[in-house]
Design goal:
This protein is of the alpha+beta class. The protein has 3 domains: 12-101, Nucleic acid-binding proteins (OB fold (Dihydrolipoamide Acetyltransferase, E2P), Beta Barrel), CATH 2.40.50; 138-253 and 449-571, Bira Bifunctional Protein, Domain 2 (BirA Bifunctional Protein, domain 2, 2-Layer Sandwich); 294-418, GAD-like domain (Gyrase A, domain 2). It has 16 helices and 24 strands. The protein has helices at 54-60, 121-126, 128-131, 135-157, 198-206, 245-263, 278-285, 331-343, 371-381, 397-414, 455-461, 491-500, 505-511, 513-518, 533-540, 571-576; strands at 18-30, 35-41, 44-50, 68-77, 90-101, 161-162, 179-182, 190-193, 211-220, 231-241, 267-268, 274-277, 299-300, 317-323, 351-355, 361-362, 387-394, 422-423, 425-429, 434-436, 442-444, 471-476, 479-486, 526-531.
């Protein structure tokens, strides 16, 4: 028997008992007459006392931190108690020590120390099995497990059926590049790892399943970000028959807040969550995933500068952000914000004014602010004494919204305006059905299988860029946390929607043959969504990096440094799948 107890369960009630525990040596303290060891496992830490006698010296001679040992001994009451840990009132006097797993004398980095956060991330990922021993990271992975159990329980309670969908699937335009898998049995043909189980879950609705869910792996060849794992991620994927947008919202408002509440001590906003149309979100926040903990909003002040002598703004789209108490900041703050706008956001500059307690406008572009402009800023835009106003301008709407959105976020951070210890949710609704691609062509903006608002009439009569869809995102604290839509279940509508995006009916039938065919045989209206699991855990763990909540993540360059993937394969393996590597010219 390797252990009778774990390292976190012994207390005063065990005093006098002979026990065996096992774990990793976290710390060794040699005090001459005796030795102390902190022994750690997943459940806690227990102090071991090694007496100064020949037998115990012999057994403990080769011990180093992070080696695995079992210790048998008597539980004693500690003379100097440690109230910070559950086992702090007791210790074990070692009678026998066995080394179960040796460890090298020199570790690549310290695991549970104050310096752990300073270790280069790529080194941590190369030795991820050691990094996962770090208490904070270890707890994140346990938290992830607990959250998954909660989600499954909640979905089961709501009558959803868990069904697994295939991993080897077909290529689909979901907005990112596919990971392709060559077929050995069918030369020249490829599977694609699913970017989402989209088509399969819709087929399940056609098949008569009322409510489906799964914690599904999704694969997208996207560039890494701090809040997005490269390559693969997991989501709580669900779909409902005979459902409209509000039905999906009710499920999200039931499942997500209760899951957050169960695993955090922060305040959690409950449903119904506010609904913000996409256009309004871009106007007020400059982004379609606004952090509502930030009280600042963006306002359009273009008319203020119609007849202005400030030529840089004249005739342009001008946005403003009024910052309460902003006049208290010194010139350096405004210069730093201007540098941020130029260097980090790519803006040409950043205009600003101060409005002091004496109602005097100063600094920045104050010489261009007339008395009538000052009055209008007060009456219509909320400029108050002791505030400042930041201005952004551009010839086009989208660039100025983007700049203003980034300035709003940065002001919230630098001025410490973000509300603490709370999760604020909202739904972004009425997304555009289509957008212009980089090549200037009409393309799907979001999910290509979404129902356009106004149905066939909208597709036939409206400018594609004016069509909005029953598409929605759940946003929490500035992160997109779920995406979903009411599905286009009408085959004629589906063909027309894809035709506008440049797909011929034959291509739709070829690429999406299963859905196209299935929709000919009686399809119920259906809708669904997919909250992201990784991002949910990141938010609940209050982590700034999504890699901290994934057991074996890729690095910033989408490499698995532990398993050394991606890597080359043998010529024989390539022949099996009929692949030849094309070497690029130097």
């Amino acid at each position: 028997m390797y252990r009778t107890h774990n390292c976190g369960e012994l207390n005063k009630s065990n005093i006098g008992q002979t026990v065996t525990i096992a774990g990793w040596i976290q710390k060794i303290r040699n005090l001459g007459a005796m030795q102390f060891i902190d022994l750690r496992d997943q459940f806690g830490i227990t102090q071991i006392v090694i007496a100064d006698n020949e037998e115990m010296k012999k057994q403990s001679a080769d011990l180093v931190t992070e080696c695995v040992i079992s210790v048998t001994g008597k539980v004693l009451e500690r003379s100097s108690k440690n109230t910070k840990i559950p086992t702090g009132e007791i210790e074990i006097e070692a009678e026998e020590i066995k080394v179960l797993g040796k460890c090298k004398n020199v570790l690549p980095f310290e695991i549970n120390s104050e310096k752990a956060g300073e270790v280069r991330e790529d080194l941590r990922l190369e030795y991820r099995f050691l990094d996962l021993r770090n208490d904070k990271i270890h707890k994140n992975i346990l938290l992830r497990s607990a959250i998954m159990k909660t989600l499954r329980r909640k979905m089961d309670e709501l009558g959803f059926t868990e069904i697994q969908t295939p991993i080897l699937a077909n290529s689909s335009p979901e907005g990112a590049r596919d990971y392709l898998v060559p077929s050995r049995l069918h030369p020249g043909e490829f599977y694609a790892l699913p970017q989402a189980p989209q088509q399969f879950k819709q087929l399940l609705m056609v098949s008569g399943f009322d409510k489906y869910y799964q914690i599904a792996p999704c694969f997208r060849d996207e560039d890494p970000r701090a809040d997005r794992a490269p390559g693969e991620f997991y989501q709580l994927d669900f779909e409902m028959s005979f459902a409209e947008q509000e039905d999906v919202f009710k499920v999200i408002e039931e499942v997500i807040p209760s899951t957050f509440e169960e695993h955090t001590n922060w305040k959690v906003e409950k449903g119904p969550f506010i609904r913000i149309p996409y256009k309004e979100a871009m106007e007020k926040y400059g982004i379609d995933k606004p952090d509502l903990r930030n009280p600042l909003i963006i306002q359009d002040v273009s008319t203020l500068f119609t007849d202005s002598e400030f030529n840089a703004f004249k005739g342009k789209i001008v946005k403003a952000i009024v910052v309460p108490k902003g006049a208290e900041q010194g010139r350096k703050f405004f210069d730093n914000m201007t540098d941020f706008a130029k260097e980090e956001v790519g803006a040409n500059g950043l205009a600003w004014i101060k409005y002091d307690n004496e109602k005097v406008v100063s600094g920045g572009i104050s010489k261009f602010i007339t008395e009538s402009m000052q009055k209008e800023l007060e009456e219509n835009y909320g400029m108050e004494p002791n505030s400042s106003v930041f201005f952004m301008a551009d010839d086009k709407l989208e660039p100025v919204q983007k700049v203003a959105g980034q300035i709003r976020i940065e002001l919230g951070k630098r001025l410490d305006l973000i509300e603490k210890n709370i999760y604020k949710f909202c739904f972004i609704v009425d997304f555009p059905m289509y957008e212009l691609s980089d090549e200037g062509k009409i393309d799907f903006n979001h999910n290509p299988f979404s129902m356009p608002q106004g149905g066939m009439e909208a597709l036939m009569t409206k400018d594609p860029l004016d069509i909005v869809a029953y598409q929605y995102d759940l946003v929490c604290n500035g992160y997109e946390m779920a995406s979903g839509a009411v599905r286009n279940h009408d085959p004629e509508l589906m063909v027309k929607a894809f035709e506008i995006a440049g797909y011929k009916e034959e291509e739709v039938e070829n690429r999406f043959g299963a859905l196209y065919n299935a929709f000919q045989y009686g399809t119920p209206p259906h809708a669904g969504a997919a909250p992201g699991l990784d991002r949910m855990v990141m938010l609940i763990a209050d982590s700034q990096n999504i890699r901290e909540v994934i057991a074996f993540p890729k690095n910033k360059k989408a490499r698995d440094l532990l398993m050394r993937a991606p890597n080359t394969v043998t010529e024989e393996q390539l022949k099996d799948v009929h692949i030849q590597i094309r070497k690029e010219d130097k």
